[in-house]
Amino acid sequence: MPSDPPAEAALPDGRPAADVLAELRALREGDAPTRGGRTFAYVYDAGLEGLDELAAEAYAAFATVNGLDPTVFPSVARLENDLVGAVAALLGAPGAQGSFTSGGTESILLAVKTARDHARAVRGISRPQLVLPATAHAAFHKAAAYLGVEPVVVPVDPDTCRADADAMAAALTDRTALVVASAPSYAHGVVDPVAEIAAAAAGRGALCHVDACIGGWILPYLRRAGRQVQPFDLSVPGVTSLSVDLHKYAYADKGASVLLHRDAELRRHQYFAHAGWPGYPVVNPTVQGTKSAGLLAQAWAVLRHVGEDGYTALAGRVADASDRLLSGLRATEGVRVLGDPAAGLVAFTVLGPGDGGAPDLSLLLHLADEMRKLGWYLQPQLSFDGLPPNLHLTLTPATVGQVDALLEDLGTALTVARSLEPVTVDPGLAELAAALDPRALGPDEVAAVLAFAGLGEGGGLPGRMAPVLVLLDALPNGLKERLLAEFIGSVFHV
Ligand SMILES: Cc1ncc(COP(=O)(O)O)c(C=O)c1O
């Protein structure tokens, strides 16, 4: 009897460690650099010698420890209590309690879960709402979608890009479980009027979360370095929880955030415990079950190593880079900085020709493409609800030495961008797209639109992103979301 052909192996035969590592290193060569201060999004570069090595060693020392059970691995409790204690000392109030999580999104998911379960248990709310400014991070919408909470989005002030506290107060109802303020917002780097928003929330018996994911570990140190910083943390009456990402301005490796609650009673709603199965009794403070203690250990080590003086000096360096960049941008003809950036985040738009020219999307995106050619990554952000399209820059201490070169290249790139043919979208196409129901589109139709946008098969990106993004900007949000999901599905094509 003929035997079955051998199944194709899932993996090739094993290879020496050195070969495997060489292949990994080679893969990195196609990536944007994560060190050196030229990639103005996604990376946080303290510019401190030895810090990456310290984080890697600390991670390695705890990589195999399972954070699931601190009774078997007591070191996990010690590290987490130290770390959350440090966050509470900087940003908390007496009695504050929290958890170490894998990032801003997980902290926000858990803040929304806490508010939902608190609203149900304490106020009898069965259809909870989440009131948030239009500039709140998309992670709140993800949390609302995951957790069955209704988002109520409040427009922000179009000049300052800050949340409008009166409009937020007016949006509160008896179903409001949670109100959100950002310190600062990711998109424009401006701090919302936290005290007013928190007071309005407290007046309705709702909880109030401050998203300090990006600002929590720099704003206090900017204050310490002598800058004016408005109160934004748990010391503000009415603020009931706060998130801060240690993998941002605390310069830990990625996978490190803390969610802090005003007290133990609130934190209880964050936890999940389950005894109704035959396996081990489960209690998970956070989303993950099994989790490596490596991420906790590296964050602990980085905080300990940098210390108060170190963070104060690093914040001063970011502020210095920010001052120099802002004055250079404000002096550049046709550039408009959005709002009044508080920490290391800057967003600017580019105006089209003519006196009092309007923000020019095509010019802005040509500029981003030209800057990319010169080795700089500035993050394009599309227009939204009256807020102009812009380029976002996250500054880190390593940027300080790059500001002059950046401004010089920006001037050159702007001249080139102005000389290029504007990218436009056929108004007929935009009208057609507006009439499409994204949920009703079949895979072939979505593939055709993606190909039209220049995002064809295989997930490769075109050399210039301006044509793709100009088209995307013109599409309704539902269609944008469908196309983005489909595109990323083609990147992860297996
Ligand atoms: C203000 C703010 N909130 C939340 C997040 C989400 O954090 P993460 O990407 O770590 O999940 C970010 C990320 O940039 C942020 O800036």
UniProtKB/TrEMBL annotation:
Keyword presence, Lyase: yes
Cofactor section: pyridoxal 5'-phosphate
GO molecular function: transaminase activity
Keywords tagged on the record: Aminotransferase, Lyase, Pyridoxal phosphate, Transferase
Family: Belongs to the group II decarboxylase family. Sphingosine-1-phosphate lyase subfamily.
Protein name per the record: Aminotransferase class V-fold PLP-dependent enzyme
